[in-house]
Design goal:
This protein is α/β, with parallel strands linked by helices. The protein has 31 helices and 26 strands. It has an eight-stranded mixed β-sheet with strand order 5-11-12-10-9-6-8-7, sandwiched between helices. The longest helix has 28 residues.
């Protein structure tokens, strides 16, 4: 089913390198150089070029023999994978005309020529026939190697040397261990298939050699000092991986198949068994141990990729593995259709070598079923291989036939060694098949009758390998039968124990849970103030630079000198200043801080300047890293232009490093919709589905300033529709001090909840949106804030509720028009909503006749749909609406219209 590889891409590559060599011979690898030198020499010797053969067609036989031999070697290194026997369902390998004898400049009569190449096997002399056989065995057997696209010659030559010097002999005990792994997987799947007929399990059958690779990663990892493997995968084969790789109890797994199974959960609703994660420790006879952490993953197949990378980097920090990153191994298992089709794959690959996101290289293992649900590769991708996207980061790619488990074990070892040596990503693309449909209730013969006729009669990998071992006398027939009986009896025993426990109602459904318990959400106040001495310590550090550091004059004037003056005057502190104070105070308390996002170092609106740059050298200086010798670490990174992968990474980081304040910042809040899958499937449902708390903060610039539909709304309404079971916090703050206290509160409570924060744009520098020194050295965060109260509460007939920037427009309108009959109440935290705080404020306005909600967003957006029923129930009164009308778009494009609408909605708040 493989796509033909005979296309023009290789010719283009040849031409590109030839032009580079002509311009500068040192700019290409020595193999290329030798090839082109011989080519030029050959052309010079034969004058007009090629001669004609007996059939009148051109032939390359006048090209010097050595050049043709070297070209032969290069040809197989480059294109051998295209004729490798990769597909278990095809008897013959694919053909590539570019590797034909004629194309390479030879004919059948040349096969007994004595030749050698200094570029292959150290110049060993052999017959041409022997060299071709050797090259085919090396590069076109059941493994196809793609590595010539790697531009770094040291890396490329390392791969080549390992390939061409490999030992194909495997000790008897190693072969039997591989057979046991295959039979264990096959027996488990067959047992489920017969005992739980029709139940979805997303069987691994046809791809059991995945387990061979996973066991190889464990054995190689233990030998090389790996402490943990952090892995992610889709649902295909997950139950086998849980049972046989992570050693999840068969009793628990079988219990989960019971129709009467009701899991005990920390909170929320859980998820189906083939989405769940697990954490275990494998122990070995020599006393060595290795931890394996399988992340849960929803049906959004590749969404787990960046989450795993973030988890891995967090574990590396915890295990002091931040230099070489060889103790914690990220491992991602993919499907072929998803790897080629999902954009988050490319985004995550792009993270791999970036300073704030690298994890020392990831092993990507593709379980290539050669079909996605009902779609064949010809309809699923435009590339030759599903793995081609990985070439953009120059990852080596090893294609392998799953029916050759010895080859699978070899490429797994090679991939592991490459990752540990170069700290770069590597891909194993295992060609296999799917014995059943997409799930066990699906009938694949409807759409692929010919394919599934072949699969039905194709022996399993375990059967084929068992036959091979018996035929080669590694194993006797009775020994093979004994292995079958061993696995069958083990599972029958486990199933009997589960059914007996169900009858006796003694099954501990909560056993082996990896859930994380935490206290329930609470509105109890938290003292988040800091002493003046601490504030002064932070200000002193963030307003100075080292001697000799040439800070830009503008930065010195508007940032450093101004901040010094603000401190001396006791205010006014703006939003970015308050953020620095919050970060600095947490760092001095021992709480590390990680902030990442597009342009986060400077800030999209030039407000943050957490990193200063030397005007002459661009050397970086991070003031918050120089507060005290024993402070925690401050990490701030400009991310790649991605939302989904970066947010997923930071979410994963927050899961496994809850002691760190983790923030992801959108360039504009509008762009958070590019990460909606991460928000929906992980962040908002982290505890409900996965029983894993997260304290990730999403900073989403939000505010209607007439900048058009893509620069106004962070889609507040979308986050509010996700609110339930106290799963997340959603806030829109109005003062820098509130931001300061909220950041500190996030880390000072005994529980963790994701925080969705609408952050300001125009308010970053608004004169009214400021705080004083006293706001930081005393006080706390307030979920509900009352605006400056009217002089006489008894005259208040109208209470206007609002959130965020519009508060300042309302306050200005009230003061300009000297309205004393309206009070303004700010909802700083929408969810969880502090209803008692609202009631306490309203108790002072006993004469109120009218309640109004005012917002900038269109009526079908913003908080209106969320807040109105809650306020109506709380107050026992109707709520009026003041705001823009319903709209298909978030905002108008013309600023003049925006200004008019803004004026109208503010006036409405006082008149509706």
């Amino acid at each position: 089913m493989r796509s033909s590889f005979a296309n023009a891409s290789n010719t283009v590559l040849l031409e590109e390198n030839f032009q580079r060599w002509k311009n500068d011979p040192l700019s290409v690898d020595s193999t290329w150089s030798a090839f082109f030198e011989g080519f030029e020499l050959g052309c010079a010797e034969k004058g007009s070029g090629v001669a004609e053969g007996h059939d009148g067609k051109a032939t390359d036989h006048e090209t010097p023999l050595q050049t043709r031999v070297d070209g032969l070697v290069y040809g197989y290194r480059t294109l051998g994978h295209s004729v490798a026997k990769l597909d278990p369902l095809e008897d013959a390998a694919a053909e590539n005309p570019l590797l034909s004898l004629r194309e390479l400049g030879f004919s059948e009569k040349d096969m007994e020529l004595d030749i050698s190449s200094k570029f292959y096997l150290g110049g060993k002399k052999m017959k041409l026939r022997e060299m071709i056989e050797s090259l085919r065995a090396t590069y076109a057997g059941t493994i196809g190697f793609e590595f010539m696209h790697i531009q770094n010659s040291r890396v490329r030559n390392w791969v080549r040397e390992r390939i061409e010097s490999r030992d194909v002999n495997v000790p008897r005990e190693g072969q039997i261990a591989i057979l046991r792994t295959l039979m264990e997987a096959e027996s488990f799947e067959r047992f489920l298939h017969t005992k739980y007929i029709g139940q979805k399990r997303f069987s691994l059958e046809g791809g059991e050699s995945l387990m061979v690779a996973l066991e190889t990663f464990v054995s190689e990892g233990v030998a090389d000092g790996v402490v943990e493997i952090v892995m992610g995968m889709a649902h295909r084969g997950r139950l086998t991986v849980l049972a046989n790789y992570l050693r999840k109890s068969l009793n628990v797994l079988f219990a989960e198949f019971s129709e009467n199974y009701v899991p005990d959960l920390v909170g929320g609703d859980g998820d189906v068994k083939y989405h769940l994660g697990y954490i275990s420790t494998r122990e070995f006879p020599d006393g060595k141990r290795i931890g394996i952490r399988l992340s849960p993953n929803p049906s959004h197949l590749e969404a787990v990729n960046p989450v795993v990378e973030g988890m891995a980097r967090a574990r590396q920090r915890i295990l002091d593995d931040t230099t070489d990153r060889v103790k914690v191994l990220p491992l991602l298992v993919h499907g072929d259709g998803a790897f080629a089709g999902q954009g988050i794959v490319a985004e995550t690959l792009n993270l791999s070598q970036l300073p704030g996101y690298r994890t020392g290289g990831t092993i990507h293992f593709i379980v290539n079923n050669q079909i996605g649900f009902t779609t064949l590769p010809a309809d699923a991708r435009s590339s030759s291989y599903c793995s081609d996207v990985a070439k953009m980061i120059e990852a080596p790619i090893f294609h392998v036939n799953a029916d050759d488990p010895l080859a699978v074990a070899y490429v797994a070892r090679l991939a592991f060694e490459f990752r540990q040596t170069f700290h770069r990503d590597v891909v194993v693309d295992m060609y296999c098949y799917r014995r059943h449909g997409h799930n066990e209730g699906d009938e694949p013969i409807y759409t692929q009758p010919d394919l599934y006729a072949v699969i039905k009669n194709h022996p399993s990998t375990a059967t084929l390998f068992k036959q091979h071992l018996v035929a080669s006398r590694v194993l006797t027939e009775p020994e093979a039968l004994a292995l079958d009986d061993e696995f069958e009896k083990m599972m029958e025993t486990s199933l009997f124990e589960v059914r007996k426990a169900e009858e006796e109602k003694s099954l501990d459904r909560f056993s082996e849970s990896s859930a994380v318990f935490q206290p329930p959400y609470s509105h109890d106040p938290v003292d988040t103030s800091i002493p003046r001495e601490r504030l002064e310590q932070i200000v002193k550090t963030i307003t100075q630079v080292p001697d000799g550091f040439a800070v830009l004059d503008k930065v010195r004037r508007i940032l450093l000198e101004r901040r010094k003056q603000v401190f001396l005057n006791g205010g006014p502190y703006d939003w970015a200043y308050a953020e620095h104070l919050a970060f600095g105070s947490l760092l001095l308390d021992g709480t590390a801080v990680r902030l990442s996002g597009q342009d986060s170092r400077r800030g999209t609106f030039s407000q943050r300047h957490s990193v200063l740059y030397d005007a002459n050298t661009r050397e970086r200086y991070i003031p918050l890293m120089h507060l005290a010798p024993d402070q925690a670490r401050f990490c701030v990174y400009n991310s790649l232009l991605s939302e989904a992968a970066v947010l997923g990474f930071d979410y994963g980081y927050s899961l496994d490093y809850p002691q760190m304040l983790c923030l992801w910042e959108a360039q504009f809040g509008d762009f958070a919709n590019g990460a909606q899958v991460i928000t929906d499937q992980f962040i908002s449902s982290s505890e409900s589905k996965w029983q894993r708390p997260s304290g990730i903060i999403m900073l989403l610039p939000h505010g209607y300033e007439g900048q058009g539909p893509e620069h106004s709304s962070a889609r507040l309404e979308r986050f509010l529709t996700l609110c339930a079971e106290e799963n997340i916090q959603v806030c829109n703050l109005t003062t820098p001090a509130q931001y300061f206290h909220m950041l500190r509160r996030q880390m000072m409570r005994p529980f963790r909840k994701p925080l969705i924060l609408m952050t300001p744009k125009s308010l970053l520098r608004a004169e009214a949106c400021v705080s004083t020194e006293a706001d930081f050295t005393s006080g706390r965060f307030h979920e509900i804030l009352e605006g400056p109260a009217p002089k006489d509460a008894k005259k208040v007939k109208r209470v206007i509720f609002c959130a965020g920037k519009v508060y300042y427009d309302l306050l200005n309108y009230r003061e300009t028009n000297r309205i004393g009959s309206a009070a303004i109440v700010r909802v700083e935290q929408f969810y969880p909503l502090h209803e008692q705080a609202i009631q306490d404020i309203l108790a002072g306005y006993s004469k109120t006749e009218r309640f109004v909600w005012c917002q900038e967003e269109p009526q079908n957006m913003g908080a209106w749909s969320f807040i109105s029923p809650r306020l109506r129930q709380l107050l026992g009164a109707e709520i009026g609406y003041a705001g823009r009308g319903a709209s298909a778009s978030t905002a108008v494009g013309a600023k003049a219209i925006h200004i008019r609408e803004q004026q109208e909605l503010v006036e409405q708040a006082f008149t509706v």
